[in-house]
Each structure stands twice: as C-alpha cells, then as structure tokens.
Q: What sequence folds into this?
C-alpha cells in the first residue's frame, strides 16, 4: 500500500483594494470599510434616504381613571410624608425625607392616630372596590364549553340520561349472556 500524494488546499488570498490596501473608503459616506465587506456596507446616508417614517394614526387619548391611583392603599407614613412635603420649606428632597423620617420616629401614638385612621379608611375603600369588582366578574361568567351543533343529531335521548336512576333489579347474569 502506497500513500497517496497529498494535494495542497487552495487558499484564497484576501481581496485588496486598487491601491493594495485591505480597506477602501466609501464614496458616499467616506467611512473606511474592509474590502471583503464592501458589498455588505450600508451607508448612513442611504439608510436615512431609504427609511420612511410611517405616520401614526391618531388614537384616542387614554384617560386614566384618577380614582384607580388616588384610592390605592398606602401606609400611614406615606400620608404623613405627603403632608410633610407640602409644609416643608427645604428644596432638597433628601433633606426633606430625612427630616420627615426623624419627625415620624419622634411622634407619639396620639399624633400618628390621624394618619392611621386616614390610611385605614383608604384601605377599606380599596378592599370594598376590589370586592365589588370580583363580584361583577363572578356574575359575568360565561360558559366557555358551548354545546356543539351536532349534539342532538345522533343521540336523540341526550336529555333523558340526567334523570335515569340505577335499576337495582337488574340481573348481572343477563349482562353476561348478552356479551357472549
């Protein structure tokens, strides 16, 4: 057995520009692009010319229900901070936040009672709305398992199966005779 001669693999040389360089400048945008990738190059100018913006159709403005966000449950601290921010003279948010937290920490339980009651009222109203919403969804239940149009076509006694009762006088021997 003789070894076969190995043929050499051909390697394609890199493509070069007219000046011998591996890069070529684009005529329209002036960017230096590899010669091998020139055919895939897309200029920014071409992209701007080719892309046309679609005019958006006017959609009715979405009106957010203010009650959805206004009446969401919040903590008593949040109610306190909202009122504190209105009354505070400082322009720096971090200072206001720090002062508000210190004030809240040093407040007595009688002073916090107003904010606790306010938070409880909003929380109860929110829970009541959720309960009403869930009741509406329960009552608007739609039977998704609609009967096919061919239900009564083949089995004429389809309604009578519901009222059938088990016949205790049925003899199991008769069933064995029928099966054989």
A:
């Amino acid at each position: 057995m003789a070894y076969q001669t190995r043929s050499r693999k051909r390697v394609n040389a890199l493509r070069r520009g007219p000046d011998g360089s591996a890069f070529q400048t684009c005529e329209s945008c002036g960017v230096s692009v590899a010669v091998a990738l020139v055919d895939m190059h897309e200029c920014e100018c071409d992209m701007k010319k080719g892309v046309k913006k679609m005019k958006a159709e006017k959609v009715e403005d979405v009106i957010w229900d203010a009650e959805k966000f206004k009446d969401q449950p919040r903590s008593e601290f949040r109610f306190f901070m909202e009122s504190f921010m209105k009354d505070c003279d400082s322009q720096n948010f971090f200072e206001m936040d720090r002062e508000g937290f210190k004030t809240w920490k040093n407040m007595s339980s009688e002073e916090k009672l107003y904010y606790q009651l306010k938070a409880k009222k909003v929380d109860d109203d929110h829970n009541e709305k959720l309960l009403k919403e869930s009741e509406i969804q329960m009552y608007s239940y739609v039977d998704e398992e609609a009967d096919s149009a061919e239900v009564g076509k083949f089995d004429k006694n389809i309604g009578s199966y519901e009222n059938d009762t088990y016949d205790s006088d049925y003899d199991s021997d008769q069933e064995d005779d029928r099966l054989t």
User: Anything to note?
Assistant: The two ends are 77 Å apart (CA to CA). The beta strands are 23-25, 32-34.
